[in-house]
Write a structure and sequence with these properties.
Length: about 130
């Protein structure tokens, strides 16, 4: 193996290892992510995890005097939405550097994301007429 070839391989390996380390670091941050959202009146606080799963809801005792049950439910839903929205923004910030430039991030992680576009499409065999040689 020539010295130039060996050096090129070593450089590629070093670049790969740096990229893999950055990806592992981003994954670690993503897996530990929590976001807390608090209502403007500070009566409702919601904490969600990295996939938007609710990890905690805190209610100020005054909430029962100030909000009706339906208002309380709405306040909780709003804070869950705010927290999960922030999780999405932070996820994009962490993951986007690893997504190919020609692949829009929203296609992978956006609100309407679907992995369907990445699935293999069915193949239609040619009809007998197309395969006939007359």
């Amino acid at each position: 193996m020539s010295d130039e070839f060996r050096q090129a391989i070593e450089e590629m390996a070093a670049e790969y290892n740096q990229h893999a380390a950055r990806l592992r670091e981003a994954y670690g941050k993503l897996s530990e992510m929590t976001v807390t959202a608090e209502s403007d009146d500070r009566l409702v606080t919601v904490t969600v995890g990295p996939r938007g799963q609710v990890q905690g809801i805190e209610l100020d005792p005054r909430v029962y005097r100030k909000l009706s049950p339906s208002e309380l439910a709405q306040a909780i839903i709003e804070q869950i939405g705010a927290a999960t929205g922030e999780v999405g923004r932070r996820t994009k910030e962490l993951i986007e550097p690893f997504v190919p430039k020609d692949l829009p991030f929203e296609d992978l992680y956006g609100e309407g994301a679907s992995f369907e576009s990445f699935l293999p499409q069915p193949v239609q065999p040619p009809s007998r007429d197309q395969g006939a040689h007359g």
